[in-house]
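To whoever is on call:

I kicked off a structure prediction for a single chain this morning and the downstream step that reads the tokens threw a length-mismatch warning. I double-checked the sequence; it's 130 residues and nothing unusual in it as far as I can see. Pasting both halves so you can look.
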Amino acid sequence: MKLSLELKGIILGTVSGLSALGIAFAAGEIIRPKPASGSVAAVTSVIPPAGTIEREGYSLFMMNCAHCHGEDARGDEGPDLHGVTKSDARIASLIKNGIKGEMPRFGTKLTDTDVQALIAFVRSLKDAKR
């Protein structure tokens, strides 16, 4: 049975595309860091704090910060936030104004109340240092 040149192209394109997709998924599994089993690193997130403002800060953190600081706030692209010693004013300034080339500005996205909630959440991490 002879296949037309057009049909051969369609089959080759489909097989190539599926192969590329499979390679991409495999590479993602290889590149993604695996936490050590049974270790503190295996915990993927922090427990939301008890206070209302801290819980709001936690929600804001998960939506805006976790992708760089890690879901457990222990750092990834951004630094570990447990035991931060900066003043509340300095933390607020960093959140609002960012750090050129390192951290985006959130001053137009987050309200002052949001920033205070994030600060409260970061402060709640102080005692959670492991």
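Update from on-call: the warning came from a stale cache, not from the record. Cleared it. Sanity check on the structure: The chain has two domains: 1-32, 40-128.
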